[in-house]
């Protein structure tokens, strides 16, 4: 399809995921725009703006996180393994819930500090949750 076509048209193409190799069909997403694999949640760097097909990179977009939009809808944060570009894609109805939860829990399971610090800080807090450093 020509560049910009998907800005105004539904994506009805079947594709093969570059990461897990599964065949992905457009149905099941509950959206007109299937833009990532529902199994491994990976995508391909095709767009600069959603649907424009202006990106020349073509690298694998790996799912690195999730965030919750103000309406409560979840979205996947992807980072291109080739150029480092970041993008956000709403989740699809048939996305793997265990993969979504594992991505969401990654910062909790691997905090940027030793877990022993939580216990230490908890001991230092008073009943109101304030640190007794004074």
From TrEMBL:
InterPro entries on file: RNHCP
Location of the RNHCP domain: 13-101
Classification via Pfam families: RNHCP
Name under which the protein is recorded: RNHCP domain-containing protein
Organism: Lachnospira pectinoschiza
């Amino acid at each position: 399809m020509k560049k910009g076509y998907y800005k105004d048209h539904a994506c009805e193409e079947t594709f093969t995921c570059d990461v897990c190799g599964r065949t992905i069909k457009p149905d099941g997403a509950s959206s007109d725009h299937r833009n990532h694999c529902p199994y491994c949640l990976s995508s391909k760097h095709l767009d600069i703006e959603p649907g424009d097909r202006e990106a020349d990179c073509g690298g694998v977009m790996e799912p690195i996180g999730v965030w919750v939009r103000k309406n409560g809808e979840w979205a996947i944060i992807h980072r291109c393994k080739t150029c480092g570009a970041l993008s956000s894609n709403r989740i699809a109805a048939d996305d793997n819930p265990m993969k979504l939860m594992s991505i969401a829990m990654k910062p909790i399971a691997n905090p940027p500090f030793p877990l022993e610090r939580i216990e230490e800080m908890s001991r230092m807090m008073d009943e109101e949750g304030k640190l007794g450093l004074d």
